[in-house]
Amino acid sequence: MKDPLGFAFRRLGGQYEVDEFGFDAELTEALLEVLRPLYRCWFRVETAGLGNVPRGGGALVVANHSGALPLDALMLQVALHDEAGRTVRLLGADLVYRLPVLSHLARKSGHTLACPPDAGRLLGRGELVGVFPEGFRGIGKAFWHRYRLQRFGRDGVVATALRAGVPIVPCAIVGAEEIYPKLGDLGVAARVLGLPYLPVTPFFPWLGVLGLVPLPSKWLIGFGEPIRTDGYDPGDPRAAFELTDHVRETLQRQLRALRARRGPAFPLPALPRLAW
Prior knowledge:
Layout: H1 4-12, H2 25-42, E1 46-48, E2 59-63, H3 71-83, E3 88-92, H4 100-108, E4 112-113, H5 116-124, E5 128-131, H6 136-139, H7 157-164, E6 168-174, E7 184-185, H8 187-193, E8 199-200, E9 220-223, H9 239-262
Parallel strand pairs: 1-9, 2-5, 2-6, 3-4, 3-5
Antiparallel strand pairs: 6-9, 7-8
């Protein structure tokens, strides 16, 4: 951050702007600055297919979800901001907006509730909207089910894109499955805490807080060719289901290809050559 003192004074004095959803562009830039070391140095994220992300206008980015904690959403936000020059407005589960601190940060950084009305308003304003239609089923699946897409929720977000006439960009994220390999679930504790699950990993809860440090897996984020929606009839109730299935099948193929391209999740460093 170039001017941290000025930033602090503007925050304290309320000299900043937010849109109708609570998005605070200046605070978002500061949060992205904090996330960049994780993006560049820890996960060493590489991107592919950036030319498939529209440079302007409304579009819906549909991505797979994984990793026990939703770090994939944050890395996607950094990738689109830094590599594609777009601010993505992510749609989150209602649980996010029931947690005091997380809810505030989510709203400030441009996220909103995953519901058709909010998605429709954002798309209608020409925003880039991101959604993880697997929801908690995606980030909570067992490690041996990694990179297998779970059932997409029928919450109408794809139907909203269809009605808005905007393209859908399938986005495959490879790497998040390995940061917290989920081996089990503390179901009783999760219900007491009001959480959808409480994962058991090779390091959590055995190492306490240290077990929350994500493993430094190698990440690839790939954006596929936009799927046009103008070939579907918005008035046909079957169209949204057909389009959702098409997006899911396309995304699953992308995941397989990108995973093969990535190779090992934890590649060994190249050994120096010895001159004889």
